Amino acid sequence: LRHSGAPGQSGLHCPKQLLGGAGQTEQGGIKASTMAKAESEIATGFKRELLGTEFKDLNREKWMAIIRRALAEVFSTATLMFIGCMGLVGGLSKAPDHFAVAFNFGIAVMAGLITFGHVSGAHMNPGLSLTAMILGKLSLPMWIIYSIFQCIGAVLGYGLLMAITPSDKFVTVPGTTPSVPLCCNFPNPMLSAGQQFWSEFIFSALLSLLACAVWDRRNLDKHDSVTLRFGLGVFAIAYGGVQYSGCSMNPARTFGPAVV
After folding, report:
1. Could you say which of 71, 143, 155, 209 would form a disulfide bridge with 133 (CB–CB 3.0 to 4.6 Å)?
2. Comparing C-alpha atoms, which of 200, 201, 199, 229 is closest to residue 213?
3. What's the pLDDT at 208?
4. Which CATH architecture has domain 50-259?
5. Transmembrane residues, as ranges (predicted)?
6. Structure letter (DSSP) for residue 87
7. d(CA 42, CA 155)
């Protein structure tokens, strides 16, 4: 510390070296620049993951890969709707019980995964595709494509089942008036609107959690029977949840019967 030499003034002045001075300012500037660069890289990386690279520098090979994945979602979702909703047809023989219906949907999911999982992942569900996008496993453009083609597949699968089933048998409860269309989701009227919403929200969250566990890199060495286990997971949720909200857990699965 030194005394000011200016006449009529007094005070204590600290050398720049003690307070950091220009050196600290320069160091702070470098640190701020480094942080700004890191933030920019994070933002760029997030944007790259969100938008993906599928539509960048498009060529025939990329187009074919996109088409393959889209068609795989169409056919896997159609498989889910055709096999799953077929288990609800009760007018051709004995009426299916609750256990059989839930198990049938679990098996339908397993069939879709086995057949098309290696092509597109066989999400068969816009909600699961959204989960994959949040985890960075699917880009925003591909999520839009997946969702559109999943809904198309749901309509096709449900329409095919309708085409091979007698119209008077294509009801959830034969003989009731008015007849409830087959495979349409109707929440339990004994529940309030809030209970219906939150029950479906929880069931969908459980399904997404199941998918997250499958996609976890720590589970990569446990995929030998993942299709069977995932199908049984769907069965477990559906068996208990169907009596609450219908337990769709899948916007495309709800969309198909509602449209057709």
Report:
1. 143
2. 229
3. 95
4. Up-down Bundle (1.20)
5. 70-93, 99-119, 140-164, 197-215, 227-246
6. T
7. 40
pLDDT value for 140:
92
**pLDDT value at residue 38:** 57
221: tokens are 């060495």
User: CB of 157 within 8 A of CB of 112?
Assistant: no
- In whole angstroms, what is the distance from residue 142 CA to residue 54 CA? 8
Write out pLDDT tens, residues 59-116.
Answer: 888 899 999 999 999 999 999 999 999 888 876 766 678 888 899 999 999 999 999 9
Residue that the structure tokens 């001075």 belong to: 21
Contact assessment for residue 248 and residue 254, using Cβ atoms and an 8 Å cutoff: yes
- The pLDDT of residue 170: 75
Cα separation, 229 vs 106, in Å, equals 10
Residue listed under structure tokens 């599928």: 54
Distance of CA 111 to the CA centre of its chain: 19
Residue 135's Cβ-count burial label (10 Å; 0-12, 13-18, 19+) is: middle
Q: Radius of gyration over alpha carbons of the chain, in Å?
A: 29
Domain boundaries, the chain: 50-259
